Amino acid sequence: MLFRSQIIEGSRAIALTIKNIKPAVVSAYPITPQTHIVEDLAKFKADGEADYEYVRAESEFAAASIVAGASATGVRVYTATCSQGLLLMTEVLFNIAGMRLPVVLTCANRGVSAPITIWNDHQDAMTVRDSGWIMLFAENHQEAVQQHIMAYKIAEQLKIPVMVNIDGFILTHSYEPVTIPTCAQIKKYLPDYKPKKGEYLDAKNPITMGSFASPAYYMEIRQQLHDDLTASQDIINKEYEKYNEIITNYELRITNYDNGLVEYYGPKNPKTIIIAMGSVVGTIKDIVDENKKVGVLKIKCYRPFPAKAILKIINKTKYVAVLDKAISLGSIGPLATEIKASAQGKTKAKIQSFIVGLGGRDVTSKVINKIISEVKKDGDNEVRFIK
Predict the structure, then answer these.
(1) How far, in Å, CA of 5 to CA of 363, rounded?
(2) How many helices (H) and strands (E) does the chain have?
(3) Per-residue pLDDT tens for 239-269?
């Protein structure tokens, strides 16, 4: 299987991937920096290059409602948003997960108001992390392409929606070499979506979705979603392996440990491990190449939270610096909170929360090196903002 690499914008790479996946319905409302994705999808439809139904919505709430309704009829759907738009979708996001609809959504991560910002951080995604969606984070264009294709396979197997997070502007508007699998190549991994009877709305076989639940049933229903989300880690890893067997045929950076949930890059026995999500990992890898005592652990999947996979990597190191592009105001970084809770009593490593990149602030090599120094200092500040 041969791939043709091309240097294109991240948004276009995602749009081309979605076009080749062939959803039946696409609906979205434009919001920076997500807009180029849905503009390209609209143009594909207008130019006769795609046959999905493209539904223009008057808001993000409407767009989410449109794909929820379409998904409930048993077809493949797609939407994209970010920031205030994602927050406007919040009610529907909970409904989509609760009704077990296999919706795929791209979040072009952007900070939230106030003050107004159009630049990247992860505060939007962190705000809806408890809505019941699988949440993936991409480091670069190629990983974003892979995660979108995998997202449909995972969502349709488990009947759990998947949100693929890509850093706004940093990935959506930058140009990188990327290979886009063809429709035929994708279909070998991702077959046509054919839900079973009883899993979708059908006048001939009536079912109820999102019904009223009394206290005698509500807790059990929510626990089932929680249990299925937690168990999805095995499926995510299996689908990552299958994807690489069937589709991947491009050069990858050699890593020490890699699966669908996490990736470790660096020395075998590092003194310090930096944990991060998204595009900043690329900068950290360059630092790791120069510093043989430091490694980086990339979190690809934030929900379900891969606690065991993380502990497997950090349990023997001395210092752990957790980089969050979000802040749980009045507490510490959301990623750091979960890692500290998971590691309680299971590692002697010093785990420190660092907040970086809010509102699009550049996370440079200077910032990373400062964090490597700061994490070794005496004292245990709850959280440190590194600028």
Answers:
(1) 28
(2) 13, 16
(3) 999 999 999 865 555 677 899 999 999 999 9
- Compute how many other C-beta atoms are within 10 angstroms of the C-beta atom of residue 178: 24
> Residue 265's beta-bridge partner residues?
296
Coil/strand/helix, residue 64: helix
DSSP string, 218-250: HHHHHHHHHHHHHHHHHHHHHHHHHHHHHT--S
* pTM: predicted TM-score of the whole model, two decimal places: 0.96
In the predicted structure, residue 52 carries a pLDDT above the cut 70: yes
Could you give the CA distance from residue 140 to residue 30 in angstroms, rounded to a whole number?
22
Place of tokens 């990339």: 298
Question: Do 20 and 180 form a contact (C-beta atoms < 8 A)?
Answer: yes
Q: What is the arrangement of strands in the sheet containing 134-137, beginning at the earlier edge strand?
A: 53-56, 25-28, 77-81, 104-109, 162-167, 134-137, 301-303
DSSP annotation string for 86-106: HHHTHHHHHHHHHTT---EEE
Query: What is the C-alpha to C-alpha distance for residues 372 and 320, in angstroms, rounded to an integer?
Result: 9
> Which is it for strands 350-355 and 383-385: parallel, antiparallel or unpaired?
parallel
Interval 8-19: pLDDT, tens? 999 999 999 999
CA within 13 Å, CB half, 303: 24
- pLDDT, mean of residues 125-147: 98
Q: Coil, helix or strand for 153? A: helix
Mean pLDDT of 312-330: 96
Q: Where are the beta strands (DSSP E) in 97-188?
A: 104-109, 134-137, 162-167, 175-179
The C-alpha atoms of residue 267 and residue 272 are separated, in whole angstroms, by 10
